[in-house]
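Hi R.,

Here's the chain you asked about this morning:
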Amino acid sequence: MSKNIKKVLNLVDNHLSNLEEYQSLLEAIFSSTQDAISVVNHLGEHIMINPAYTKITGIKAEDILGTNAYFDVGEGESVHMKVLRTSTPVTGVTIKLRPSGKIVIAQAAPIIVDNKLIGSVAGLKDVTEINKLTNKLQDAKKKIRELSAKYTFDDIIGENSLFVESKLEAKKAAKVPVTVLLRGESGTGKELFAHAIHAKSTRKNNQFIRVNCAALNESLLESELFGYVEGAFTGAKKGGKKGLFEEANKGTIFLDEISEINFNTQVKLLRVLQEKEITRVGSTKSMPVDVRVIAATNINLEKAVRQGKFREDLYYRINIFPINIPSLKYRKDDIPLLVDEFIKKFNYEYGRNIKGIEDAAIKVLFSYDWPGNVRELENYIGRSIITMNFNEQIIKKVNLPHKDFVLGKAIAINDPIIGNIELLENITSKAEEEYIIKALNSLNSNKTETAKKLGISLRSLYYKLDKYNIL
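And the predicted structure, written out as tokens:
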């Protein structure tokens, strides 16, 4: 054999050896990658998958090889078939796999050899874990929102001179860590003011904790506010528990309905305001705290002091910077602004497209004194929108639920006196639930047609079905 022939054969052997090495390398990479990979030929038949694919889909190679590209697609489009139709790459396609039911993001690219399309290769990214992490992140954000101010001064709507003066006073209070007492009837927006003051203050990046003093009994309120040590009482947690004043350190605590605090707790609160320290229930050791206190009340505290129901020394400690928030009956000129804001809110929540309210309806609203203040007006507008037809875009006088506006009482005309009075928010929710059920029944439970008739998106309808547990 000539030297030239031997040289050629050696080159061929080396070439084949390199090809085998390359093939082994590619197979190793194909098997070890964490992304699921599947390959189909030009007919759309599966010819190759890797172990990661089996892990995600639950499908073994012997079960899928030779099957068509739709074999593993539960919901969505086959990226392989799209690539074979268009000869172009496909990215970011969401697919629900079968039989695993997992949600994946798929991308695929054409396999072209000698300018000829011979197949498609696809990669699947399991987003189940990503969704779990996203949900955890949303939960964390929700908790952060609960521990921080949700509203700013931009959320406090009103141009009435009395109301504007209250806002200006609140903005002044936000600049210094003074104790603030918010005074006003129920529903005037005292909590919004508390949130806004905190959000405008230097403490805005620290916690904002709201305490409804009327919602907790005497012993529970004290332990919640100031915490307790281990063994302080029967059922006390091992190691004790931090109180809300400790949790709010460097931040703000909002004591709503402060007049409901009992005398014993008033003494401890006075010590916090005077000495800037707290003592846990069951302990004699004091701990320093740096907390800004915003209190709120809807009663005449001066009268409560005279009657011996509220400590005079505590009254002077919390009444350093009082802010009076006017009732809605004294700022009726703000009703149109408030209604516009509520319409925006309910358009978003109810999936509606209300454009505004007619003058005749506004005049009706002006004729009522709104003892429940802004909160009552908001619930009333929400109820009005729910009772409107879904093709109506203007709130008219006829759309307003009947009230005895002349007497200024929240009693339906010609209705008997209500026995158990519920929150208007509950009533509006019940009305919406009943209307959705009737619509579904009328359209033989066709959700797509129901959403269309109701004038909301299908997604909004599914949200409401889940909210009201409508099967």
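The CA atoms of residues 360 and 397 lie 6 Å apart.

Let me know if you need anything else.
M.
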